[in-house]
Amino acid sequence: MGALDVSCTNDMTLTKLMTEFIGEHKDLFMIYVALLLALPIRDVLMPHLVGKMYNSIKEKKSFKYIIIGIVAIIVVIQLLGIISDYIEMSLHPAIYKFFREKMMSHLFATKDTNYSDVELGALISKIVKVPGVTHNFIDQIQGIFIPYTITTLISLGYVTYVDWKLGLPLTFCIGVLAFMLYQSFYECSPATLKKDEIFSLIMSNTDDVIRNMVTVMSFDKLDDEFDRIDEFQKDYAHYTTSSWECSLKTKYVVIPLLLTFIVYACYYGYQSVKRGTLNQGSFVSVLIIIFMVFKMVLYILDKWKDILLRNGVIQHGLAMFTDCKTERVPYNKQAATTGGIRFQDVDFSYVSPDMQRPVFKNFTLDLGWNETTLIMGKIGSGKSTLISLLMKYQTPQAGEIFIKGVPYSSLSSKELRKRISYIPQSPILLNRSVYENIVYGLSAPPKAEEIMNMITQMELSSFLENLPKGLDTNVGVHGSKLSGGQRQIIWILKAMFSKPEIIIMDEPTAAVDDNTKQNIHKLLTKVMKGKTVIMITHDPYLLKFASRVITMKEGVVVQDSRGR
User: Fold this and answer.
1) 17 and 138 together in one domain
2) Considering its fold, how many domains does the chain have in total?
3) Is residue 226 a part of any domain in this protein?
4) Most buried residue, 187, 279, 427, 449, by CB count within 10 Å?
5) Pairing relation of β-strands 323-326 and 6-9?
């Protein structure tokens, strides 16, 4: 098998996700945008009214209507603030839900026919962090940058209208600010992205240590594990500092520039008032607006570091949307036999962008319908890969698998898996009740009474006796509150009630005691009856059910014998 091409694509961007999210909540966003446009009322009109009130006081005129206007603006702004808060509180949980479901849906979709083990620590870190960080990122954009931008643009217009010799220099300063922010956003992105990548490595290694807690404690290696993680911590600290230093460049340029402009504005305004070309009220209004803009700029610069760091988290999180596909050679031949399951001319390798491990080459094998076939072989012989291909957790790069003459490639994974029950060697359960685990995924879930009757008929009362609340007993995380045998029984009961055509078993009795094994034997005897069974096992009791024994070595069938 020659080298296979792996193409990885990722066209997902924050803009694309947010466009979709806004489309689902467009009414709320339209109201929110309207509220943003009202902000300049407070930030520009108020200083203007203060300037007019100053002139009225100086000229000893009544300013009653000006006071009424100021009070009215304050009341309106408060009401608009309440509406804005309500919209934000409505959008907050919606953003979390949207991003979490998008990330998980993509993960399940890409793993559906190309399953591989995932690094849970790093993965969970992304799924937990990204929605919250994205919300904070968007909150800062819509709560600070958008309203501040609108206010600044209107302020520039107002100042320019009052005196263009003040408006143009202020416009230049704001232009420099915008350019520096834009430049630093892209210049600092590699450091912030690397920072979050290393943070995920720290989380992944921490997760690995905790999952192997017994091993670490048994050999007293906790300090060594701390030292190992500290190597990543040093890199994390380095890139955190680099990100911060990168964000400072904008401050070094913009703040001195604005301070220079303020000195110029004060001097020029004072001279204009003395010459009579600018009245004192307008000068006061302009100064208030200039200092307000300066305050907004300082606030933006203080928050810019957070924006950059959050962007790094988001960009690293969006890497989850990378979809890698391996080329598949078109296969147009019909199945040579149509009576059962057939692997025909199958090529398969485990492939990643930097690795290729071949398992099958031009592999052909027939598995009889309503027969029990035992697959044997050492580690690395291809047994587990065979099961993955049968479950469509993996897809051949060449050739085809047929079920009664129908190509696997024409069947959806959902449709196929409804016809197959898989009983693994080390079953994992959902952190729910025994009953919920048994009926999980069944199109016609049985009632608890039906399950109880089945257990009684199978003389498995001891299984129930060990469950404090019967079928309502919570099994714990991954089924940790149950023994391995109890978890296995739950999976077999699920297989019985799903009524599959095909049953695949991977050492179903390998990790249980003798008493539990007897109970499992009773269940398996019933569940295998009249079914197509493919099993990997060394259990002598189950071996006697095999009508065919296949021995594999390095992806090849080296022995094929029939008879019980």
Assistant:
1) yes
2) 2
3) yes
4) 427
5) antiparallel
Report whether 249 contacts 180 (CB < 8 A): yes
94 in a structural domain = yes
Q: Identify the CA nearest to 446 among candidates 486, 496, 400.
A: 496
- CA–CA distance, 478 with 487 (Å, rounded to integer): 9
- In 44-163, which ranges are continuous DSSP H helix? 46-58, 64-111, 120-140, 146-162
Distance between CA atoms of 552 and 369, rounded to whole angstroms?
20
Residues 52 and 152 in one domain: yes
Residue type present at position 233: Q
Type of residue at 557: V
CA-to-CA separations, 320 to 43, 124, 215, 323, 434, in angstroms, rounded: 41, 11, 31, 8, 33
| Cα→Cα distances 101→200, 282, 393, 402, Å | 20, 54, 21, 34
Does one domain contain both 456 and 387? yes
Question: 263-313, pLDDT tens digit by residue?
Answer: 999 999 999 999 989 888 888 889 988 998 998 899 999 989 999 998 888
104 domain residue, yes or no = yes
Structural domain containing residue 524: 369-398+408-562
Alpha carbon distance 57, 34 (integer Å):
35
- Give the C-alpha separation, 564 to 552, whole Å: 19
Q: Are 348 and 388 in contact (CB under 8 A)?
A: no
Q: At 530, phi and psi to the nearest 5?
A: 75, 15
User: Looking at residue 73, which CATH number applies to its domain?
Assistant: 1.20.1560.10
Contact (Cβ atoms closer than 8 angstroms) between residue 90 and residue 28: yes
